[in-house]
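Hello again, I could really use a second opinion on something today. I've dropped the whole record in just underneath, so have a look.
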Amino acid sequence: MTHPKYKRVLLKLSGESLCQDTGFGIEPEVLERIADELKEIFEQGIELAIVIGGGNIFRGVKGSTQGMDRATADYMGMLATVMNALALQDALERKDVATRVQNALQINEITEPYIRRKAVRHLEKGRVVIFAAGTGNPYFTTDTAASLRAMEINADIILKATRVDGVYDKDPLKFDDAVKFERLSYIDVLQRELKVMDATATSLCMDNNMPIIVFNMTQRGNIKKAVFGERIGTFVSGESS
């Protein structure tokens, strides 16, 4: 396929994607590789928005299970996403990719506040927009933030980057007989409790007919393949086949 299938995409990156081997912090080599791939699709004229998690620095749910107040833990997790967003912005701008970080929290010295119309305008002007701090509310995941922002900017699709090559009936890293799904419906995901996105995020996509591609981020070139409509990962939509 010579032309991109999708013009405006929302890429959901986990914080762990920035530290492929260690599970904590930011690995410069991994960050550089991701930035190179993002630049490649940016140069194809794709309008690219990114929601990034913070699990490589602090995960709110884990903090709350260890006795911390859940809201406090979630706000700390949001701050972790801001750090990741700034790191990704720096990596992209060192490659001459114009980038803006929009923040659901107010940290005006280093980021813009999230304003939907301004975010859309940035995309139209050829800037990558990185959304930080999730929705800005505790008790909501960055998956939900990705779904919400995708609706707000009228994205064509959500690209959910993971460490496996799609959605399986059970964890393929633990079970050799795990079966991969090529296509799923939103109802399939919810009824089977498959680990695509959390139920709130999946329901939001279902209500607004927003398709999702779940794919392996660690394999170079997969983001471009997804954008160009190549068969990759697991495609989630209103139909299972």
